[in-house]
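Run Alpha/beta hydrolase through structure prediction, thanks.
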Amino acid sequence: MNTLALSIVLIHGGFVDGSGWQGVYNDLKKDGYDVSIVQNPTTSLADDVAFTKRVIASKSGPVLLVGHSYGGVVVTEAGNDPKVAGLVYIAAFAPDKGESVETLIKNPVPGAPVPPILPPQDGFLLLDQAKFAASFAADVSQETAAFMAASQVPWGVAALTGAVTTPAWKNKPSWYLVAKDDKMIPPAAQRAMSARAGSVVTEVPGSHAVYVSRPDDVAAVIRQAAVALSK
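Sure, done. The structure for Alpha/beta hydrolase is below.
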């Protein structure tokens, strides 16, 4: 497979939209890759998988799926599509069969930071704006973090509770970037999920918003996966 024959599809997580991928997108486009960003509604896992599969279907060749945070759950389910050649997790959830974000965060390690998720309103969740920067985007500029906090996308409880039926990482190769300073998904949990999935792991300093703050490092992991799949 020619590396550039592979399409790269980027999937955002909860509370944000696809615009945060711009730095990663620009980096990969410089190499000539076909890159698409899925704008998932994050209303339910089923909806988000359907939106992602629509983008996969639009590609003529093999696809590399990349998910950040909750986007990893979408990748794990949608990655079973026969066009998907591999999976990349960026500080993401990588659930096993029957697991959801809800089950994965149910029993946090003692002392682990607790994400400032506000009580649900009409079936949707938001992060406390005043605590958004510290928990989600500590290494992003104050201006950008404030904008991310103010432009949050309500995250559906049905997305939080959506359980994976067949984890694609059991049948597809995967790569994982651990954000070592993450205050949303503890790095220890990221390491455990990536080890279980048998992923090729890279660790970098970075907050949960590592895809915004360190786009070069994130693009490097995606490029590593694309090159490996071409061999």
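DSSP finds ten helices and eight strands in the chain.
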